[in-house]
Design goal:
This protein has about 220 residues and is an alpha+beta fold. Helix content is about 25%, strand content about 30%.
Length: about 220
């Protein structure tokens, strides 16, 4: 499904319909829009449907998984959707489902936005975002130099990690004969990608066990 691009609507603290909006005005005016998610698209505002329950389950699991791991090893911070990644006035400020910002780059994280690229971007595919996550966002993340793009797809029951190579293009991590191969990511994160897709059924104990496995 294609993204519908709307100019900002007339409402409290937002510009009149049809006017362009700067990133800085967007951050002030579009902290949240009930029933929708928004992203700043270099002057206009894109609105997307809210996530479904399965999407939220996987998102919650991944957030806890990465937070436990990153906190325990003091590697960095995981950031939930809603925080724009600002990379310039001529480029969209995407708001990935999850971002990982390593300790070495913690100064990029401001109160309401990320000033620069994340070290890892994670998107969870939903029926509304399938084309966008695999197309437009893939190209954008590659062009701005995000080191790793994790694409979690519960629709197809698969997960992939794309790593930025020396040629400045993404290359997908290899898979073995049994399915997705081990993913050795930024900061030493290592797990079976199948577990990422099945995360919505993981208990708290299973999540903690997986954190321990990731450190081996």
């Amino acid at each position: 499904m294609a993204t519908v691009v709307y100019p900002p609507q007339t409402q409290t603290n937002t510009p009149p319909t049809g006017e362009k909006i700067s990133f800085w005005d967007y951050v002030k005016a579009y902290n949240s829009v009930e029933g929708m998610r928004t992203e700043w698209a270099a002057g206009t505002v894109e609105r997307h449907m809210t996530n479904n329950v399965k999407h939220q389950d996987i998102l919650g699991f991944l957030f806890l998984l990465f937070r436990f791991f990153l906190d325990k090893k003091q590697l960095g911070k995981v950031v939930l959707a809603g925080v724009p990644m600002y990379v310039g006035d001529d480029k969209p400020a995407r708001e990935p489902d999850l971002m990982i910002v390593l300790e070495a780059h913690k100064e990029r994280l401001k109160a309401t936005y990320l000033d620069g690229i994340a070290d890892v971007v994670v998107e969870i595919v939903s029926p509304d975002s399938d084309e966008r996550d695999r197309g437009k966002k893939y190209v954008e993340y590659e062009q701005i130099g995000v080191p790793e793009y994790w694409l979690i797809d519960p629709i197809r029951s698969e997960a992939d990690v794309y790593v930025l190579g020396e040629d400045r293009h993404y290359h997908r991590a290899a898979r073995d004969a049994q399915g997705p191969a081990d993913l050795d990511g930024i900061g030493g994160i290592c797990t079976r990608s199948g577990a990422l897709v099945a995360g919505n059924t993981a208990s708290s104990a299973a999540t903690l066990a997986l954190v321990e496995q990731m450190q081996q």
